[in-house]
Each structure stands twice: as C-alpha cells, then as structure tokens.
Amino acid sequence: MPSSGAVTGGRGALVTAPALAVEGLTVGYGRAAPVLQSVTLTLPQGETLGLVGESGSGKTTLARAVVGLVAPTAGSIRVFGADIAALDRAGRALLRRRVQMVFQDPYTSLDPTMTVGEAVAEPLVVHGLGGRAERAAWVDELMRLVGLDASIAARFPAELSGGQRQRVAIARALAPAPALVICDEPVSALDVSVQAQILNLLKRLQRELGLSLLFVSHDLSVVRFLAQRIAVIEGGRIVEDGPRVAVLDRPQHPYTRALIEAARLRARPAGG
Amino acid sequence: MTAPAPALSVEGLRVAVGPPGRGRAVVGDVAFAIPPGGRLAIVGESGSGKSMTALAVAGLLPRGARQTAGQIALGGRIVDPAGPGMARIRGREIAMIFQDPMSALNPVMTVGAQLVEAIRAHSAMSPRAARARAAEMLAAVQIPRPAERLDAWPHEFSGGMRQRVMIAMALTHRPKLLIADEPTTALDVTTQLQILRLIDGLCREEGSALMLITHDLGIVEGFCDSVVVLYGGRMMEAGPVAAVLGRPRHPYTRGLMATIPPLDRDVDWLDPIPGEPVATPAADAPGCPFAPRCGLAEARCRTVTPAWRPAGSKVAASCHLLAPSPAGGGLS
Ligand SMILES: Nc1ncnc2c1ncn2[C@@H]1O[C@H](COP(=O)(O)OP(=O)(O)OP(=O)(O)O)[C@@H](O)[C@H]1O
Ligand SMILES: Nc1ncnc2c1ncn2[C@@H]1O[C@H](COP(=O)(O)OP(=O)(O)OP(=O)(O)O)[C@@H](O)[C@H]1O
Ligand code: SF4
Ligand SMILES: [Mg+2]
Ligand SMILES: [Mg+2]
Predict the structure, then answer these.
(1) Residue B226 and residue B39: Cα distance in Å, rounded?
(2) Which stretches within chain B are classed as H helix?
(3) How do A36-43 and A20-27 pair as beta strands?
(4) Looking at ligand 1, which atom is closest to the CA of residue A53?
(5) Is B47 a pocket residue for ligand 2 (Cβ < 6 Å)?
(6) Do residues A65 and A77 touch, judged by C-beta distance below 8 A?
(7) Are strands A180-184 and A212-217 parallel, antiparallel or unpaired?
C-alpha cells in the first residue's frame, strides 16, 4: 500500500515522480463503448500540460477520472507517484485536498447562496484547515493573489461579472494549497479581454506557486500560451503528444493539422 | 456610370431599451453600407450592441427595445423594419441565422416539414415540389443522405448539422442580404470552419451580401472584406479588413488585437485591456465609451464625444487622439 504522504507533491516534495501519470486509461459510461481508450499521459511536476480536442472527445471525462469522479475500467492514474486506486482513506482525503479543479462556467460553479468569502473559505472548513482567524487571513491573501478587491468577499456571485466569478473559482481552488490543478475550459465562456487577464493570472500563479496544471481547452492558441506540453485527443484516444512548439509547428497527425488550421479563426490576425 | 445601390445601408441608427422617455440607448449613431455581394463583419465584446444592430436591421428587435433614430435602406430603398411590410421582406430579401440553431428550429416538427414550410411561405410551390427542393437544399449544405434526413427531428441532428439546416432555410429564397449573428460560436473549431466556408460559398453563388457578427478577429480576417468595430453601442473604427486589422488606429481595436493569444508564436504575457466590458455608459452619453478602460484616456475623453473622422485610406475612427494636431504625435 503506498503511503498517503506520496500524494503531497508540490514544493519541497521528496518524490520526483510526475505530478500526473496516466497509463492505458480506459473509461466508459454504462455499457456504451468506452469514451477514453487506453489513454497515456504524463504531466511533470511544476509544468502545464494542455489537453486539446473537440467537443465529446473525452477531455472532461479524463479530468473527472483524475479527481476520482469516474472509475476507470482499465489502466492506472498516478498522482505524484501514488496510484489513486490503491489509496487508503487518509490518502484519498489528501488527494481531495492536493488536487483541485476549476470549471468552465463561472455562472454555475459557485453556490449562489454563499458569499464570495464563504465560498473561498469552504474548502478550508471541509478539510479542517486552520482556525477561524487563520482562514480569514488566508482568504484575504487568496483574494489579493487572484486580483480581487477584499471588499468583494461580502458579495454574492450574482453581483459579480463573469471574470470576477472565474477569479473567485480560482481562489477557491487554490484555498487548500493544491499541488495539481485541473482547469476544464476555464476561459471559454469569457470575453477576450477578460480571458487574457485570467490566462496571465493562471500563468503567474503556476510559476509563483510551482503548481502543476492540467489545462483542458479546445483553443490551441490559449494552450500555446500556457502549456509546455500539448496532448491532442480525438474520439477518446491521444493522437499526438509532445512539446508545445513541436506539436504546433511540426504537427504529425492530420487531426492536429486540421485543428491548427481551424484555430486561426480564434487567433490574433497576422497584422497584430 | 453610377455605383449600384448598396445591398444594405444603415445611417444614424439608434436603439434604446426600456420604457420610452426613461429608456437607455444601447446603440448610438451606427452607420455602414454593404455593397451587393459584399461581406461586412461587426465585431466587439459582449454587450457592444452587435446583436441589437443586426436585429434592428432585420426588424426583429426584442420586446422593450426599439429603434429611436436612423435610416435603413435595402438595395437603395428605404424600409421601416418595424413596419407591416417587413415580414414579406424578411425571408425573401433579408434572412437571418442565429448563434443557437436549436432555439430557432421547432423541436416538434421534422426538419423536412420546417424546410417545406419555409419554401412555401414565399412561393406557390406544391408540397411535393417543395419537398424535393428541401432535399436539394439539405444536399447544398452538405448533409449526407438528404432525402432520408428530411424525416429526422432537430434533436437527432448535431449542433453543426442544425446550423446547416438553418443556413439552408435562410438561403431558400436567395436573399440579397444574409445576417449571421455568431453562427458558429457554439460549435467546435473544425465545424466552425466548415460552416463558415459553407456560408461563404453559398453567398458567393447566390450573390448575397453578408453581415457577419462575431467576436473572433480571425473569422473577420478569413471571411470578410470590411469591418465595423463596436464598443458600448458605438462605432470605434471601420474600414477594409486588411487596413483595420493590418494597422489598427483606434486604442480599442489595438487593445482587442493585443489581448488575443497568437497561434504561430510564443509570447510570455498577454497585454489585456484592463477591466471588463460591463456597465459601459449609455450609447448616447457624452464622452468616449472606452474611456474607463483606455490607457491613453485624457480628461476630455470623459466629457467630449470624439468625432467620427477619417483615419487613413477608407478607414475612419472615433478617438480624440486621431485628430490632426499641429504639434504632430497622436495615433495616426
Ligand atoms: N455522464 C455521462 N454519461 C454518459 N455518457 C457521457 C457522460 N458524460 C459524458 N459522456 C459521453 O462521453 C463522451 C466524452 O464526453 P466529455 O464530456 O468527456 O467530452 P469533452 O471532450 O469534455 O467535450 P466538451 O468539449 O463538449 O466539453 C461524449 O460522447 C459524451 O456524450
Ligand atoms: N432584450 C433586452 N432588453 C434590454 N436590454 C437588452 C436586451 N438585449 C440586450 N440588451 C442590452 O443591450 C446592450 C447590447 O446588447 P447586444 O445583445 O446587442 O450585445 P452583443 O454585442 O450582441 O453582445 P454578445 O456578444 O454578448 O452577444 C447590452 O447592454 C445588453 O445588456
Ligand atoms: S477618445 Fe480617449 S478614451 Fe476614447 S479611445 Fe481615444 S484616447 Fe481612449
Ligand atoms: Mg468538457
Ligand atoms: Mg449578441
């Protein structure tokens, strides 16, 4: 049985195992054909892996499998070296704390009845981290970190703009000091100016906090900006995987080439 | 020889929402023209007034919104979009497609029945002939096995296929103007490209002018020949696509370009426009609507509305810094 300490990872981790190592992962819903087929991926510690593919290709399913929300039918998922299927109770609790998710829709991912301050503090309460005063101080710090004014803590999600809500969702994900953060299309619903602010924020946080980031997107230019490595998924299979520049500038698979051609629709025109 | 009348010309368009007298202007002084067969893009972030402009032209403004000023002409003929004659014009001379094809299709009618209805609304075709024409239309938008697919329900189609059906319907009567309001925003990028190519090809074949609303500058570059940049319901910059995107003059257009991640090179940081495009001032308030977010704003930007003035060959923009100044400098 692996010790639960192996999931710690992040800064000062003793292990040098990848933040995430997925091997031969097959996942299906019910009796239908599997939606992920023998997926193998590696995210080295402190790096960002961009996962791109079209709607229905299995990106969210992969993200959900990593946080243990869906069970694989075959294959393994190791987080900082620990096989998540073999964790004991304490290990699973630690995993829930050290791996956090940010979702696409900042309108539905926050509880409308909680103030921003309560929403950001909630994961600390759930994981029993800190006393009341420490939590309040940490929430203040997190708000500052994601570029939100402290006065916003007293407001409800309905009173915030889309960009502010996504910042709150990021602050909340960072609250329990995760080492691996999974972002499932976190900027797809935002206007380009706000998208750019959030992308800069994620990049800065990733560097400053030494986070490992799995960044799911259908937008290759966004992935180019954030990721060191890119994996391309089509119909539940990884069709191409490699360093950012190699995948984008010398794509091998026809599907990657089609994605790149189409991605020009969303990218900055050549003159700019 | 005189130039042919534009397929669409819009002058001094204003749209307000809310009760008359206490309403709020959401579109102010929008003006542009599309030549026959021309392709104009309207770009801007959320809330900039793109849809309101399109809906005003098509006579489809939602309840509570109304045109308060301006003149709209189709093929040189002035029309009243809110008037009783508009229903006839719509579908025949102007057609519109929207972002969400599911909401525009009737979920309880087969695809074929809806196409037949659209065909027969403006022509005296027999049901049988209309059905044959409907199958041809599905083939034209590249739906495989079109004759069989006539009996399918909208929910049996993917998002891309539904949008193809909407395009088929919109182009049934060879409109002189097709208005497409973010027709591909909800679709995958590869499907986006297919749909845009389809719209582009069919408009060329039919000689239809296209007014394409989008917030993606890459789409503007790939599919349009002129562009209007809106912010806060007002025109920031307009002109030929190559000129505006190749060398943007207006601080908002420049900001919009710099804020988008490039695809073909690495950048360490993006240069976002600060703040968010929410709570812009009313479209008839004095001053520049972009002033609260503009890094170059001066005191006068908040109080004096910048004039619409030429900013290069065929390009015009509204920014105080584009005024010719004896001391030189400025943005142009
Ligand atoms: N709870 C579920 N039950 C059954 N099938 C599901 C479920 N969730 C997803 N699927 C199916 O699994 C496949 C992969 O879906 P997934 O949500 O992982 O794709 P995705 O790449 O995230 O797509 P998108 O870009 O649209 O978010 C799809 O065919 C989807 O219909
Ligand atoms: N039905 C409505 N009633 C009142 N105000 C409306 C209505 N629809 C839109 N508005 C307001 O009119 C302004 C312009 O909206 P419009 O829908 O034209 O923006 P848009 O540029 O199409 O934005 P998006 O990119 O989000 O579609 C916004 O301030 C919006 O809040
Ligand atoms: S008029 Fe002033 S605020 Fe508006 S874009 Fe020009 S400099 Fe900026
Ligand atoms: Mg998904
Ligand atoms: Mg709109």
Answers:
(1) 7
(2) 50-58, 86-89, 101-104, 111-121, 127-140, 146-149, 159-170, 189-206, 217-223, 241-246, 251-259
(3) antiparallel
(4) 21
(5) yes
(6) yes
(7) parallel
The Cα–Cα gap between B86 and B84 comes to 6
Reported confidence tier of residue B265, pLDDT bands at 50, 70, 90:
very high
Q: Which residue has the tokens 């910042």?
A: A167
Low-confidence ranges of chain A (pLDDT < 70): 1-15, 106, 271-272
Q: Which of B224, B250, B264 to mutate to test the interface with A (most CBs of A within 10 A)?
A: B264
B243, closest residue in chain A (CA to CA): A271
pTM of the predicted structure, to 2 decimals: 0.91
Please list, in sequence order, all residues whose beta carbon lies within 8 angstroms of the beta carbon of residue A3, skipping any fewer than 6 positions away.
A91
Query: Which of B99, B236, B263 to mutate: most A Cβ within 10 Å?
Result: B263
Nearest to B141 by CA among B192, B183, B195: B195
* Structure tokens that stand for B238 in this block: 């307009």
Ligand number nearest to the C-alpha of A32? 1
Residue of B nearest to A197 (CA): B272
Query: Cα-flanking dihedrals φ and ψ of residue A57, to 5°?
Result: -80, -15
Q: Would you say the CB of residue A58 lies under 6 angstroms from ligand 1?
A: yes
Tokens of A10: 């992040």
Question: Which value does ipTM take for this structure?
Answer: 0.88
Phi first, then psi: what are they for B34, rounded to 5°? -120, 120
Q: Which of residues 128-187 of A touch B (CB under 8 A)?
A: 161-164
CA-wise closest residue to B200 among B216, B212, B217, B213:
B212
What are the structure tokens assigned to A252, written together? 């091998």
- Cα of first residue to Cα of last residue in chain A, in angstroms, is 55
